[in-house]
Design brief:
Substrate binds at residue 271. The record marks 213 as: Important for catalytic activity. Keywords: Hydrolase, Metal-binding, Nucleotide metabolism, Zinc. Residues 4-317 form the Adenosine deaminase domain. This protein is an alpha/beta fold. It has a single domain (5-326), classed as Metal-dependent hydrolases (TIM Barrel, Alpha-Beta Barrel). The chain is 48% helix and 14% strand. The protein has helices at residues 18-28, 37-43, 49-59, 66-82, 94-98, 104-115, 118-122, 138-147, 173-181, 196-204, 221-229, 238-243, 255-260, 272-275, 279-290, 294-306, 314-326; strands at residues 5-11, 85-92, 125-133, 157-161, 185-190, 210-213, 233-236, 264-267. Strands 1-2-3-4-5-6-7-8 form an eight-stranded parallel sheet. Strand 5 (185-190), helix 10 (196-204) and strand 6 (210-213) form a beta-alpha-beta unit. It binds zinc ion. Zinc ion binds next to strand 1. Residues 9, 11, 161, 189, 212, 270 line the site of zinc ion (ZN).
Length: 334
């Protein structure tokens, strides 16, 4: 679906398609424990968040050089552009790479090779958001922020991802306070597998401006009311929720109810190589399965630009919003 949109919840490591994984493995002399791309694609049929994360970290071994990260980002941007993405705020997981012996510079400079030329090459403006792994220690997060000091001109904000349950936002208060002092924007995954209380804590303790997922807010009417009142954007990832069994089927997804409640929802792809689709695929799926009208789809697209960190370029945001308003659906959505 080519409806113009911003993607606000996208892990660049989660865009590694089997074909590129094998190409990078060959280039770097890494042996993958899969016979071919088909066997690897079959391994993408994981059961839950933890089994997905195990595969996700295993495959990162093929990413070694700046060129690898540039190739990864360019492959994502090309696919995203084909699905109407005009602006992308991209997550990356530095600790997962530093733990493998890479320097933060290799990761950031490599990604920047692609992001810096993305407007020219793909027609997509970009921002970079550095995520902390919440199953690592708070000290490790602080060290990562410290290591990022030379690259802060390229990093717009910080996020919090990986296994949620048992790792409440409170654990990361100190690093989020330090990030705020550095002028970094703040987001965090909350309320995906974790309880609604994690969403409240992310807002009150970490000072996040957007909640990634936030699905489980629907269990707490007072929290929904607050999110509506404060216009807190939620970056939902419908196909991801199905693959990780956060919802039983896409037909059970609460997105229509969330929109009806007045929540500021956006639709994103999370880890598209693993979850069966990029941003446009997610839009098409919620249109088809949840029966969202064209007005609702346009609202989701408008929300994505309104929720994006384009405060330094309001003229650009206005231009993107005008593109959404002018978009004609035609037969593409049927
Ligand atoms: Zn995510």
């Amino acid at each position: 679906m080519s409806l113009p949109k911003a993607e606000l919840h996208l892990h660049i490591e989660g865009t590694l398609e089997p074909e590129l994984a094998f190409e990078l493995a060959a280039r770097n002399g890494v042996t993958l424990p899969y016979a071919d791309t088909e066997a690897l694609r079959e391994a993408y049929a994981f059961k839950d968040l933890q089994s997905f994360l195990n595969l996700y970290y295993e495959l990162m071994a093929v990413l070694r050089t700046e060129q690898d990260f540039a190739d990864l980002a360019n492959a994502y941007l090309a696919r995203a552009a084909a699905q109407g993405v005009r602006h992308a705020e991209i997550f990356f997981d530095p600790q997962a790479h530093i733990a493998r012996g890479l320097s933060l510079g290799t990761v950031v400079e490599g990604l920047w090779q692609a992001l810096g030329d993305s407007e020219r090459d793909h027609g997509i403006s970009t921002k970079l958001i550095m995520c902390f792994l919440r199953d690592e220690s708070a000290d490790s997060a602080l060290e990562t922020l410290q290591a990022a000091t030379p690259y802060l001109d390229r990093i717009t904000g910080v996020g919090l991802d990986s296994a949620e349950v048992g790792h409440p936002p409170l654990k990361f208060r100190e690093v989020y306070e330090a990030a705020a002092r550095l002028g970094l924007r703040r987001v965090a995954h909350a309320g995906e597998e974790g309880p609604p209380e994690y969403i409240t804590e992310a807002l009150d303790v970490l000072g996040v401006e957007r909640v990634d997922h936030g699905l489980r807010c629907m269990e707490d009417p007072a929290l929904v009311e607050r999110l509506v009142r404060e216009r807190i954007p939620l970056t939902l990832c419908p196909l991801s929720n199905v693959r990780l069994r956060t919802v039983d089927t896409l037909a059970d997804h609460p997105l229509p109810a969330m929109l009806d409640a007045g929540l500021m929802c956006t639709v994103n792809s999370d880890d598209p190589a693993y979850f069966g689709g990029y941003a446009g695929d997610n839009f098409a799926a919620v249109h088809r399965t949840l029966g969202l009208t064209e007005d609702r789809l346009r609202e989701l697209a408008r929300n994505s630009f309104l929720a994006s960190f384009l405060q330094d370029d309001e003229e650009r945001r206005a231009r993107y919003l005008a593109e959404v308003d002018a978009y004609e659906f035609g037969d593409a959505v049927s």
